[in-house]
Amino acid sequence: MKKLLLILVVFLTGCQGYSELNKLAIVTAAGIDKKNGEYEVSVLIANSPKINSSNKEGEAKTTVYKAKGKTISSAIRQIDLKSPKELYFSHVNCIVISKEIGKDGFLKVADFFMRNPETRNRFYLLQVDEKKASDVLKIISPLESYPSQSIKTLIESSQNASNVGDTASYSNFIGRILEKGYDPIMTTVKINGDEKKGGKQSNLETTEPNTYLSVGPLAIYKNDKYITTTTKEETKVIQLLNNETQELTYNIKYKGKDISFYSNMTKTKIKLKNKNHIKITVNIKGDIYEITKDINLNKEIVKINKAWKKSLKKNIKDLITKIQFDWNSDIFGFENMIYKKYPKSYKKNLKNLKVDITVNTEITGAGSLAKVIKEDK
Amino acid sequence: MENVNQIIESLKQKYGNSKDLNSRIIKIKGKNIGIIFFESSSSTSTISDFITKSVITEKQNLFESIFKNLENKLWNCQLFTTDDINELPYYLSSGFTIIVTDDSNKAIIMETRADLDRGITEATSEPALRSSKDSFTESHSKNLGLIRKRIKDENLWFDEVKIGRRTKSRITIAYINNIADKNKIKMIKNRLKKIDIDGILDSGNLRDYLTAQKSILPQIKSSERPDLACQELLNGKIIILTENCPFILILPTVFLDYIKSPEDENQKWANATFTRLLRFCALVITLLTPAIYIAVATYDQNTIPDKLLISLAVQREGVPFPTFFEIIIFMTVFEILRESDIRSPSNTSIAGSIVGALVLGQAAVDASVVSPITIIVVAVTSICSLIFQDSDFINAIRLWRFLFIISSCFLGIIGILSFSLIFLTKLASLENLDTSFISPLSPLDIEANKNAILKLETPKLFKRPKYISNINTTRQGGKK
């Protein structure tokens, strides 16, 4: 009898959560747009097989389904009706939102993805620069064998070059919104070229793709609302101060000539001196990457270093001023630091903060060339 | 005893006038000398050369009793007398020759066995690269000799019992007297004595009598390697040899013995440790892979990395069966293939493997009856199971693997987890001859663990494992 009961226990569980792999529509990316007060959700399904199926890995075709609804979940319900398979959200690795969503406030959208037990919190959150979020999903990338992964690989590969790294992750973004005295930033993605051509197979067949995606500058948020987009130079400085720079190329003008520095050793310390005083120290070591005209390096390297230091300091100062007065968005969490140290006397006073900036630069090498290449006359 | 003619007649009647029972009566000085033997199981040339000759030269014997004279004169080292007529059939069948005379009520029994075995050949079921090549055979005395010549200590004792009402098979319990555990020997003897069966033809028949608990897992290892047998004897284990069977039994066996191979002892310690760890991994893989695949593919898809999941999903496109059904079908087909490969004569097994590889593997995928990943899972599982040499062990693991598959069908990863608990509990609950099946891991014996999953250098192994025997545990000198 006991044995029978034991066997029954196993068989009466009724296969909770059972689903076959080929009955799932694996969603790897979602885009959210807003149109006439309604949400337009588009999902990228990764595992739609090719028509002439040679079941080889990596040859999966992608499909984008789109639907409108008053809420995100009602829109997704609409997609579920269209899709022959059950939508499966656990492998979403990227969510693209449009500018309108950002302006409207992101927290309204965030709830669905945070609440859904299927989704992981480790996906990338991107804001599309000008166009619709659904267009981003449709672009087929020629270099990626899994088309559905192209946005993810784009971000991961440009992590070094454009320093978007951890900034793009969803949990990071939400974490910053929820933290006191912290304002989030979001990476933007840009469609280059005609978005209508980008979704066609022909985009893969040309050597120079008509349409491609690229990671753009950062979007600055105040609480959960979009404020503005930074310039390229500002992006660099922001990530430098955020300590997320892995590689930094920095150009200065020196005596009317261009000099590039390359550095992969940067360290930024932001310290609180007292309630109203923040001290930023940036240590940066770099090599000379490129010089366009003849300069006697032996003599002038100290001067070049000084110029670099000066330029960097100026840029940082400009950015801090912008943050304090133009955007009024505390993306470095100065107020958060104050709150952590003096929780009782905390009040919002980003504008009145005194910010000291120290920059230490060091030129460690001049590359393999001692002199500048020039014609010997 | 009656006279010679009567004895011969009664023996022939006992054997139902079987034609291979031969006899010859030689008359010397009015007295009959009878020679009885089986031409099938004894060597007739030995009989002609040594017995018949000696008997005929009896003619020159004038004064002494013929029986006494023969007893002293026969040229053979194995010779004894008996006065019990009921003992005679056992010796006759074994290939002995019986000599009876009119002037004595005793019979002379002389060893004239024919060489009815294949000789010592290489071990086929347990091949090894770097070990002695000989293996046990069907000849009982040769088997004993293979052990005796390796261990020259007088403490190597052979106890013999005869089991089987009809076969009267010789079962030898071999052990080293001042190492092996006396209690265990006593228990084994008691268990063997209780057996009352018509025949024991293989040591496998004895296994069930020697274990106390029921289990699919074999609790007694069998081997055909004399070097392994001697190694285990030196560890204090007890070996059981069965007449006419090349497989010996090693008692007590623990779970880790199946992970070890006889070659480990001859290898560098690091290599032996590494191969043991590999075998351990293989055991886990062969036990769990299909179950984990089913669980992950039908319940816990979120545990698979993105790209792998997409590729799995695309591969499964168009496959008509549920995942677990696919796996079960293909596991079954593989087991049938393996079974048929063992059973079929070697020249047809090639055809079998071609059909298996091409038809079942390639064509089934092309026809999208199964997904390629299923083939991979089944292949990995079966390759890993081939590492283990004891067929009983593989079969037990196979059964547990199917149970794991079923549990994962119903409960996913949770099913596997809970079933692993049942499996471990079952392993830990097994006990034979006062030895836990998972010793020396539990109860923990650090000294024995130096040669369990890991193996230390041989000069550092000072003690014998205590779970085998507690007596005289020093294995080598030199330790302070």
Description of the structure:
Chain A has helices at residues 2-11, 72-82, 99-104, 107-115, 133-138, 150-157, 159-162, 170-178, 195-198, 202-205, 232-241, 297-327, 334-341; strands at residues 24-35, 38-48, 61-69, 86-88, 94-97, 124-128, 185-192, 212-222, 225-229, 248-254, 257-274, 277-291, 354-365. The N and C termini of chain A lie far apart (104 Å). Chain A is globular, with a radius of gyration of 25 Å. In chain A, strand 1 and strand 2 (38-48) form a beta hairpin. In chain A, 32% of the residues lie in helices and 32% in strands. With 480 residues, chain B is of the alpha+beta class. Chain B has helices at residues 4-14, 44-56, 66-73, 88-94, 140-148, 182-193, 203-210, 226-234, 269-298, 306-316, 323-343, 346-366, 372-385, 391-429, 446-449; strands at residues 21-28, 31-38, 79-82, 96-101, 107-111, 156-163, 169-176, 221-223, 238-242, 248-251, 431-432, 435-436. Chain B has a 5-stranded antiparallel beta sheet with strand order 1-2-4-5-3, with helices on both faces. In chain B, a hairpin with a 5-residue loop joins strand 4 (96-101) and strand 5. The longest helix of chain B has 39 residues, at 391-429. The radius of gyration of chain B is 29 Å and the shape is elongated. The chains are: A alpha/beta (377), B alpha+beta (480). The interface between A and B is medium-sized, with 32 and 30 residues.
